[in-house]
Amino acid sequence: MAQVSSKLSANSPTGPIETRWEKHKFNMKLVNPANKRKHTILVVGTGLAGASAAASLAELGYKVKAFCIHDSPRRAHSIAAQGGINAAKNYSNDGDSVYRLFYDTVKGGDFRSRESNVYRLAQLSTAIIDHSVALGVPFAREYGGLLDNRSFGGAQVSRTFYARGQTGQQLLLGAYSSMMRQVSKGGVELLPRREMLDLVQVNGTARGITVRNLVTGEIESHAGDAVVLATGGYGHVYYLSTNAMNSNATAAWRCHRRGAYFANPCFTQIHPTCIPRSGHYQSKLTLMSESLRNDGRVWVPKEKGDKRKPQEIPESERDYYLERIYPSFGNLVPRDVASRQAKFRVDEGRGVGQTGEAVYLDFADSIKRLGKDLVVEKYGNLFDMYEKITGENPYEWPMRIYPAVHYTMGGLWVDYNLMSTIPGLHVLGEANFSDHGANRLGASALMQGLADGYFVIPYTLGNYIAANPLPKVETSHAAFQASKEEVAQRLKKLLNINGSKTVDEIHKQLGDVMWQRVGMSRTAAGLKTAIDKIRVLRQQFWTEVKVTGENNFKNSELEKAGRVADFLELGELMAQDALIREESCGGHFREEFQTPDNEAKRNDEAFSHVTGWEFAGTADKANWNEFREPLNFEYVHPSQRSYK
Amino acid sequence: MAEAKGMNLSLKIWRQAGPQAPGSFLEHQAKGVTPDMSFLEMLDVVNEELIRSGKQPVEFDHDCREGICGACSMVINGNPHGPQQATTTCQLHMRHFKDGDAIVIEPFRARAFPIVKDLVVDRSAFDRIQGAGGYISANTGAAQDANAILVGKKESDRAFASATCIGCGACVAACKNASAALFVSAKLSHLALLPQGQVEREERVVNMVAQMDAERFGACTNTGACSASCPVEISLENIARMNRDYAKASLKRR
């Protein structure tokens, strides 16, 4: 029976929610300015959270080492975020406030997040915009020179700041420029093309990392006073997702295996409007902005297996199923509802296109109503992107869309200070589980990554350093040597299996199991099958995989192999987590738990908690213990949503 | 729409085991290529075959596969990112090729981009140029309210257009002199066009240009090959602005 663990103590301040962060900041210990340079902080990952943390910590005077797997820190996948970033500025004069953003985020997360964290996030949102503008981020402007806002993802207020469809790129380049400034000033040492393969602990605290130099294959040790992990989410466990090809969970998973609890791994977000796959060779899926659903109408043929061209299917033989089932929200139902309904249609055999794994998103009516020019103005760049990828002209053919995995709300468990269950190991951005509960709102990922990096970790890390004796540790310490040895052995093992299956082949099989059974709609039976299948795959991987090449050169296959090996464990944990969470909430939909209207049915009595998993396996065997952090709602009271 | 059978292509790919190793073109066959595949997915298929037959797959940089991260970097039939205008390699699809085509694939070639392996090059020179001045010195926490800085929509749009550079290096690969002028000037223009960037404008251009030279990129002779091959269509106008700012700043500094 799962129990509440003292390790999962949130360390949230108490009192009125508006004053908690202020109070907490005041109560934190400070590091003397002259002493900061004596402390080395290892920052792993250089996306929004990592780059902003590295820059801000170096500005304070800490010695920072920043690591990334890419050739340049600017390539982190934050770069691909399109839509925008929320902030409670109320520049639109439409009634927004810190409290409203807090309220929307807790509610949107289906009451599975920590109120104190979410409130702080909403409070910090405004400073992110101020700082980003100071760094020269070219947000969209009004003619008078003020910042423009739009409403995003069904929000009732316009609080989203954006830079055309490239908000993530512009915010990341801002954080990257700050970090590069610190690199040239000597505050940050940049170590690109390094992959973290282990966490090193001395006396129970995180004191270093073991990385592989991806160019030379050398295994390196790096020691520091604390480790900041900002390595992103784990959506690539599904193989096909909107994540980048190198997005992976390995750094986080290695920490998990060393004692960091993994929280709510089953909370994944599926985005409804992605370009569907076109064949077995497909390597990734591309997201198209959700705004398309404002003017596009979603439909499938009424008849199963109807292979006619869409233009030849008369109105009377089309099923505009979202409009039919949800007459008041129609095509604008939330992400998870739209996604699930698309899957139901495809599973019924009414999917369209060559693979049958798509539904239509049709602009014919909008073009008639608004005129082609206005449609071009609103959606031109998206239509161009669609045509580039599919070779079809969406002005003449309805788009084909299908849901894809997009974001993972789960991640390493952290307390209010963003520290994991391993003292000294801090986790930021998508890599932690913290602020989005069971479902993330649109335009909130960028906000969280930057809040963590710019405005939370500079304070909480200082407190950790000031409050703990951190005797100097060198990489010659036995713990580093042992870690290096273990990492080298694992790499050697991977290279020596020499079976007949490629890494991608097994990854695709894992992805298929995850998508079919641990995807947007889950059942107890399906999850149990998934666990069995994943165990078989893992066995196959370690006996039949073929990793070519050598360790001491650039070797992408070896890099991928290590990551897939970890996904093969994480996948099982996701299924376990989904199996024991006998309710539906946010991105986690269990078919057994739904309302008569097919809406997610939460069970607040039994599941108003965060599940934190402790790794209890061995080198060869995966096994976990389940613990709980109870959630209390003092301000936003749980209610059931309805979109009818 | 994909055809059932697919195309067969013969590829000549630059293979080089490591930075110091000698390189050469090797022939590889791509079989059953369908028009809906992206160029990188075609290479994935080739690599899977190579691995199965116990050979080393072709190394290439890639990540987001949606045209924004700037990782993919190869020269296809003489063109950085291939024949399609305003398109990164990852967004290039095989419907632009036909059955029986011979395709030559090389790494980006420039003295400042040493080869790491096969098609992978080291573009860290770009990061060092960025570090030399491609920023506004604003520490976290010190900023005033965002709307206290007014930026006209036109200026903001122009700054944005320069800021969209993905840092891939195609401009360098396309230039006969391997000049980085387009990359450097795009970053300079992004910041020079905004009020926030004015304080450090002169120092920035002098320092970034000095670093560009130190990295041993070639000189710009205004042929415009960079802009023509840029996947995000960064304009040559940026280079003109950089030259003007550089002249002004160096005269003032005498």
Structure description:
The complex is a heterodimer of chains A (644) and B (254). With 644 residues, chain A is α/β, with parallel strands linked by helices. In chain A, 36% of the residues lie in helices and 15% in strands. Among the domains of chain A are: 271-405, Flavocytochrome C3, Chain A, domain 1; 478-630, Fumarate reductase/succinate dehydrogenase flavoprotein-like, C-terminal domain (Methane Monooxygenase Hydroxylase, Chain G, domain 1, Up-down Bundle), CATH 1.20.58.100. Chain A is built from 16 helices and 20 strands. In chain A, the strands form five sheets. A five-stranded mixed β-sheet of chain A has the order 1-20-19-11-17. In chain A, strands 6-3-2-10-18 form a five-stranded parallel β-sheet. Chain A has a five-stranded antiparallel β-sheet with strand order 12-16-15-13-14. Chain B has two domains: 7-117, Beta-grasp domain (Ubiquitin-like (UB roll)), CATH 3.10.20; 123-253, Fumarate Reductase Iron-sulfur Protein, Chain B, domain 2 (Orthogonal Bundle). Chain B is 34% helix and 15% strand. Chain B contains eight helices and seven strands; from the N terminus they run ββαβββββααααααα. Chain B has helices at residues 39-52, 124-131, 153-163, 170-174, 181-192, 201-214, 225-229, 237-253, and strands at residues 7-16, 23-33, 74-76, 79-80, 102-107, 115-117, 120-121. Classes of the chains: A alpha/beta (644), B alpha+beta (254). The interface between A and B is large, with 80 and 79 residues.
